[in-house]
Amino acid sequence: MKFDDLDAKMRRFETAHDHCVLPGLFIVARLDGRGFTRLTKEVHQFEAPFDMRFRDHMTRTVEHLMNAGLRTVYGYTQSDEISLLFHREEDSFDRKLRKLDSVLAGEASACFSLQLGAVGCFDCRISQLPTEQLIVDYFRWRQEDATRNALNAHCYWLLRKSGKSVKEATQFLLGQTTSDKNELLFRHGINFGKLPAWQKRGVGLFWEDYEKTGVNPKTGEATKAIRRRLKTELELPMKEAYATFIRTRLLEAVAKGSK
Description:
Layout: H1 3-15, E1 26-33, H2 36-43, H3 52-66, E2 72-78, E3 81-86, H4 97-116, E4 122-129, H5 132-161, H6 166-173, H7 178-187, H8 197-201, E5 203-215, E6 222-233, H9 239-255
Antiparallel strand pairs: 1-3, 1-4, 2-3, 2-5, 5-6
């Protein structure tokens, strides 16, 4: 069999289940760390429940993904997960799901591992969302998950540090209401409402324009140019204010077209 014929034959097995995101749908990727509880609490022993070093590793991983050649609109990270919103017209890899999943997971894993100095792996899944309201709902969902996770984490590690075992701390928190958990923290001198916003709401990254000044090397005249850079937001708004924040990112993306 000639190579070209063999190549065409075998490639059919690789592409038999190829699926693409339909034109006009928004692409949102969510990446999760694999085995990060053990990696961050046992192997590398980051401070519990939150560690600024780990936060910064995750934030830099988002920055890397947003500069990896795909048209991103917004990046978000909380705990060991990352969410990326792409421009509606993003068409890299012909919008093939297997390519998006594998490339994003690979890029995130490589970047995070280099920062950590050890292997850290991510998986990736894609949401295909037809409306801007679903985009808003998605990011509100992840932020509310961040708030719930933060409350549970602070309670869990308070109990662990007070001498309870993994099983005892977990069982104690079963059935506890949000009010109960807040009261538990308050009794031990922790006001959940006053904890750093990034712990409770996550970290957002988005593009902003700025004016860069320079000098024309030929004429010596001062020059100005509009450039763009990533802005990291550690004090994200909540609830409806966060919904407005996300809508603003979408409006900015539309205004800038497919840049």
